[in-house]
Amino acid sequence: MSYRLPSAPRRRHTATVVIPCYNYGRYLPAAVRAALDQRSVDTRVIIVDDHSLDGSAEVAHRLAAEDARVTVIVHETNRGHIATYNDGLAAVDTEFVTLVSADDLLAAGALDRAAAVMERHPRVGLVYGKVVRFADAVPAARSYGAGVWRIIPGRAWVDEVVSQGFNPIMSPEAVLRTTALKEVGGYNPRLPHSGDLEYWLRLAVGWDVCQIRGAVQAYYRVHGGNMHLTRFDGGIDNIQQKLAAFDVLRSETLSAAGHWGTEVHARGVRSLVEESLGSARARIERGEVGDALPFLGFAQRHAAQPAHQRMASVLRSEIEDRGPDGAGRW
Predict the structure, then answer these.
(1) Within a 13 Å sphere around the CA of 241, how many CA atoms are in the beta-carbon half?
(2) pLDDT tier at 224, thresholds 50, 70, 90
(3) 262 — phi, psi (to 5°)?
(4) pLDDT confidence of 232, banded at 50, 70, 90?
(5) Least enclosed by CB within 10 Å: which of 20, 207, 278, 328?
(6) Domains in the chain: boundaries
(7) Helix or strand (DSSP H, E) at 131
(8) Which CATH superfamily is domain 2-230 in?
(9) Can you tell me the distance from the alpha carbon of 242 to that of 191, in angstroms, rounded to the nearest whole number?
């Protein structure tokens, strides 16, 4: 790992912002404006509408008519977000690409900074940085400077992420080298909830990663329709989906990872077992015995370390002593 002072791109580059959209037509104009607000990158936008019911396709076509840099793909039937992502990514022919949901926003200069990194560091295939959450109002322009570049060998980044059991990338801030995208392929349709994490891991096995520190790279809109809020409750499902993403490290998909991938996968499982045990313990202490059971069950199925097995047994005994109502009654 190394740190580098930022610099501007030495030449103009090309990038595509893929904007998947389902019933987010009201957000599309702002998303497109933000995508095109770059200085050193010639940006194109591909809007992929997944058979929206709110007139999103009409909004997208109007935006395309107003600016030749915008193109539109419309699904005749609803195909889901993974197919929508992959259809947009398959149409990219620029040097760099980012996938930004219609309700999120790229920060001004985000593609300029990412292009500068990947210009200077040809082995970097993934760049990400700071994300600011917002609600209704589009954030006012904020400057955190050009941002220090933290360059991380890809496999070291994978090890760091898996060992911590935490996905550090929300998604709109991630900019990819298109060569890397074409090499690793699209999102995995079997992972609708953790496909982004699995994708970053898959890419980083063969490419280095840069985290831009100090500069805002994207804005993430928080509202009641967020996919992670409506389809993914963040409880035991979150842990199970992270495990599904980690499984790519020992799959035939990444056969080149070999023994290293198997070892890192084991560390990832250990981190998730520790998270499960901590979640079970917290719920037991709050008297939420029934809610603790799925976490404990996950830990008992996957614990390989004797210490984890002993802790799981202790927690199981506490649950049996307390009863399902948390107060010793069965």
Answers:
(1) 21
(2) low
(3) -65, -40
(4) very low
(5) 328
(6) 2-230, 236-322
(7) strand 124-134
(8) Spore Coat Polysaccharide Biosynthesis Protein SpsA; Chain A (3.90.550.10)
(9) 10
Q: What is d(CA 276, CA 209) in angstroms, rounded to the nearest whole number?
A: 28
CB atoms within 10 A of CB 194: 22
- Expressed in angstroms, the distance from the first to the final Cα of the chain is 54
Predicted confidence (pLDDT) at residue 239 exceeds the cutoff of 70: yes
The whole-angstrom separation of Cα 299 and Cα 308 is 8
pLDDT in tens, 135-158: 877 777 555 557 899 999 999 999
- H-type alpha helices, the chain: 28-36, 56-66, 81-90, 110-120, 154-164, 178-184, 195-204, 227-230, 236-246, 258-285, 289-302, 306-322
What's the token pair of residue 130?
């700071």
Q: Give the pLDDT of residue 254.
A: 72
Name which of 257, 289, 36 is nearest 158 in CA terms: 257
